Structure formats: C-alpha cells, structure tokens
User: Fold this.
Amino acid sequence: MAVRNVAMREAIRRALREEMLRDESVFVMGEEVAYWQGTHRVTRGFLEEFGERRVRDTPISEMAIGGVAVGAAMAGLRPVAEFMTINFAFLALDAIVNHAAKVRYFFDGMFKAPLVYRAASGWGNQATASHSHAPEPIFAHFPGIYVGCPSNAMDAYGMLKTAIRDDNPVLFSESIALYPKPGPLPDDDDQDDLLVPIGKGDIKREGNDVTLVAYSRGVDWALQAARALARDGVEAEVVDLRWLRPLDMALVYDSFKKTNRCVIVEESLPMYSFGSEIAALLQENMFDYMDAPIRRVAAEDVPLPYSKEIELLALPNAQKVVDAVKEIL
Amino acid sequence: MPSPTKDMLLDWYRQMVLIREFEETCHQLYQQKRITGVYLHLYSGHEASGVGSMAALRKSDHVITAYRDHGIALILGMDANAVMAEMMGKKTGSSGGKGGSMHLASAAHNFWGGYAIVGGHLPLAAGIALEARYRGKDDVTMTYVGDGATNNGYFHESLNMSAIWDLPVIWIIENNGYGMGTEVSRASGQTELHRKAKAYGIKSFGRVDAQDALAVYKVASKAVEYARDNGPAVIEHVTYRYRGHGVSDKQYDARDDMSAELRQWMDEREPIKILRDHILGKHGDIGDALAEHDEAAKKIVAQAVEFAEASDLPRGRDDLLGNTYVGSQRVYKTPASIGAGID
Ligand SMILES: Cc1ncc(C[n+]2csc(CCOP(=O)(O)OP(=O)(O)O)c2C)c(N)n1
Ligand SMILES: [Mg+2]
Assistant:
C-alpha cells in the first residue's frame, strides 16, 4: 500500500469524507462549509459529492450551531459541526458545556449526544486578540465531553474517525498552523487500523534526559527543540498526549520515571492551563521521581497583539523550550 | 431636514474619494506584503453608506462598527497617518499597532471602535446608548452591522434590549449581499432585513439605495431625529463590496458569476460617480473642486504610507504587555504574584 505525504487538512478531509460514506447519519454543518468549500478547505468538494442535505451552510449563528448539533445528535444523527475558528465557539460555550456535555448525565443515561465539534485553532499571522486563541483547556475543563487535538496528518485522520464513531460528544481542535503541514498517510480508503482510541497518547520521540509533554502545535515546537538539544547531547522524549480529555497520564508517568525531568509545552495561556494540570498531576503522583522543578512553556500572559514582532514575542517557540530544558538539566 | 448645501456635497465627495484611495492603496500594499496579516476588509463600494449616514450626526453622537472599519474612521476625521500606521502595526498607529485593521478607534471622535467578532459590538452599541439615556443626553449611537451579523444571537438580544429601554441607537444594516460567501437568501429567513425591526417593536426606516449618498443622508437624518427623542431605529443600506469579503479568501470572489455581478455594480451603481454626477448636475459651477479633492486624496494617502513605513514597530515586553489592565500598580502584589499585568 502506497504511503504519501499529505497536508493535515487533507487527512482530516479524507477522514470526514470516509465517515460520511460509511454512515449516512453523519452530516456536516457550519459557516461556509458548503458553497465556499470550507474556510480552511477541509470540506472542499463535499457539497458536490453529498449535496445540501448532508453539507449544510449555516448562518453566522454559533449559539445555534452548538445547540442544533446537540439536538440532532440526541435524536439519532451524527453531526460534525464546524466552528470556522475556535474563537467563535465561545459564542456557543453554553450549548457545548451545558448541553452537549451534560444531557447524558442529567437525564441519567437516557440520551446520548454523539457529535463532533470541529474547530480551527491557534495563534499567529497577526489575526489579533479576539481571533488568537488556542483555548482547548477551557473545553477540557468540563466532564462529559472529550477533547482531541492532533499534531499531524496521520493522527488527525485516525482521531477524527474515532471521534465521529464514538457515542460521546467530542471537541476536535485543528491547529490552523498545522493544516498545511505534510505528513505520511496511506493512500487507501478506510484505514481502520489507523483509528486512534480516545484518550491514547503517543511517544513522538524517545529520549532519556527530559520529558517534553505537548499536544497539537506544541508537539512541533517540542520536536524542534528536541533536535536542537540532541546537538548538545541532550536526548528529549516527546510525549504527544493527543487528547486533552481523557488524559493518557500513564504515558507521561512512564516517561518521567525514566527522565525525572519535565517541560510542558503548549500554545495557550499559562494560567489555569494544560501545563498547570500536567505539572500538578506529576507532583501528586511522581514526587519520588522528581529531580528538578517542572517547567512550563506557554504563551505570554497577555491578549495577542496585531503587530508582528510583539506577537512573536508573546508566542511559544522551540527556542523557549530549549531554554526551559537547559534551566532544569 | 435641509437639503445638503454645495459645501456639504463637496465634503462628502472629499470623504468618499479619500476612502477609495485609502482602501485601494491598502489592497496594493497587501499584495506587496507591506501590509501583512490575514484580515483586511475594505470599504470600497460602501463609501456612500458611511458618508451619507454619518453626515446626519453631530459631534457629540457616537459611532461603532465591525471590522470593515477603515472608511468609518476616515469619515470621522481620524488622521490617515495613524490609520495607515495601524494597518502596518506601527507604534504610531491609532491603536499603537496592537489592534490592526479590524480594531480602529478614536475616543476623541466618539468612535468606539471596530470589532472582529461578528455581532460582538452590537450590545456594546446598546450600552453606549444606555449611557446617553441614563444621563439624560440626546446623543445617538450610529451602529453599523452586516447582513450576515443580523442572524447572530447578539443582534436579536441587542435590538430587543434597545427597544424595551428606548435606547437611541440607529441600527444600520449594511446589506452588501453576502456574509463571506453566503448570500442573504441562504442565511436569513427574512431577506428584507429592515423588517427584522418589526419583531422587536422597533421603528424601521426601510431599505435605502446606499450607493446614493444623498438618499442615504435623507433617511439617516430622519432616523437620527427620531432616535434622539424616541428610541431605536433600523435602516437597511443596500450596497456592495468591491474587494470581496477580505484578503484572506479570494477563491469565491474570483468566480466568474461574482466578477460579472461586481462589474455590474461598478458600472451602474458606482457611489462616487453617482455623487459626482449629482454635484455637477446641481452645481455646474464648481470648477476644479472635484479634481482638487481627487488630487488631495492621493497626496494624503501617499503621505500616510510614507509616515507609516517610517514609523517604528512596537518592540519588547513593555510594548507587548502594556494596557492589559487599568492601573495595575494599585493591585496588591507579592513578589510572587502573577497575572496582574505590568505598570
Ligand atoms: C462570531 C463570528 N463568527 C464568524 C466570524 C467569521 N466572519 C468574519 S466576517 C464574517 C461575515 C460577516 O458578514 P456580514 O455581517 O454580512 O458583514 P460584511 O463582512 O459583509 O461586511 C464571518 C462569518 C466572526 N468573525 N465572528
Ligand atoms: Mg455582508
């Protein structure tokens, strides 16, 4: 079977298309997903192939996008609802948090909401403060919904398929910066062996000196940093958690037992964050293995500005990861 | 409402050619990567909508809009240098380079800003109008909102609240036919958007041909007068965007049927030409005044580009972190406290 490099957006497109072919209860809805061919081109060609019944442009009505998906899912469909960017999911926060994540619980198992919210996420390119968030931890705060955040094409393919087939609601965050990034993916359709179980992390690079824990775009920075560190003889292990909820902490613990040092890398803001959570869990459960303080690399604690230089100053990058590692070696 | 004087008409012309020159220059600068980023939504084609309606305001009135805000800023008299510098993210920009194209504002002009989240500015408009009602002032808040934004929850809640509290907001729906790639008929159950007013018990001033500054001015004047004493008003401006939604997505706008539609608007409903013809028809004796405005616009914009390019970028942590909070020096801080911003 031929394996080809495809952009992450293409891998997501393929996964979504194959799931639509596989199960006619799967449909997509969102702003500009049909006629405009998807703001990020993930649903390119879908309208032509599946028609308006299954590829539904919505008005700019996020509150309704969030809630309609819940109702349709409760009633037996499998909506894949797209937020053009994750920033706009804030308008739907109530539908996501209070209904998608809770109808199962507060009716004591009477209903389920098998839906996926897809959202393009991340900072950069001078998108300015209100369009510059990577707020996955906010959604992962709430029990009742899963949160998936792929870092490459193959994972995105397998994770989205799992998310669509799962009977629980999933927020699926796609890094805009990673959309064009090529990664290997087998040519054939329906690669069920590539399905990534919900909550399963992955070691993206092995090493004995320090554990770098990351997800989504943070994995890129961690891998770049690991390559730079290797030139100085430091071997970093890169743990890609892939899902923020549930968290594959066993993978982190196993790595930490080996390295005894950890730097957590994330694109989002530092307070009440992914880094805070992982660091807390490590100190609670791995105290005996800890040889150095745990460091976190995140965005600066500030809304993101438009102007290029200060925007870059605010963002995490591989060098910041390298610096953090050197502080604790 | 007195009909506009020759001087007023000439001033409108000045504003409109300045906007067009500014926007088309921004378009070029973006192609040349002298303006960067992903968002740049131009007001070309919309000029008469802003110019005609804001001519009905007085200085103490308020203005707020979405991200398609360059024209609004220039109409209000914001310095073209500072606006262009903001496009380039410079320290001399009107928002210090922090806001960019979508976040122009000027407290001095009662311009409460451009906002990037669709519909997000609408409750702010109601709040600004609330201040006027609260303190017994009869200033109005002129609020621009896109056709697409009228389908957002923010729109419904804000209009309803403005109705029950009699808030002096003029809700101007700038119907340019599309929200990104979605035409009005595919996004809105009620395609005569001004009729949405009825649902909230708000007075509608109907639908206006917003390529005609004079027609816009007439209706806006009535609505402003009404709003001062009574409460909210809705007007629907029918207009067209010449440069598509924005720079970040061109594929849709490049379609053949779209270019044909655009050509038709430009040929038949060009706002600057309509005003120009009106002025010449009514005041044939204006000599070179129009040409002088054409020339002045070019000069102002060229100077603005020069100014902006010569200006410094914000740099370093102080520029990054400043103005996250008001007066963070008053916050109780231990040496280890975090999250309070910098002084
Ligand atoms: C809440 C929200 N959803 C989606 C977007 C993305 N978006 C930006 S502009 C726009 C279209 C708005 O159309 P309209 O209100 O008609 O204004 P126009 O751009 O035509 O002036 C969309 C969908 C956004 N900025 N905010
Ligand atoms: Mg529009």
About this structure: Chain A touches chain B at residues 31-32, 35-37, 39, 57, 59-64, 87-88, 91, 125-131, 271, 300-303, 305-310, 313-314 (CB under 8 Å).
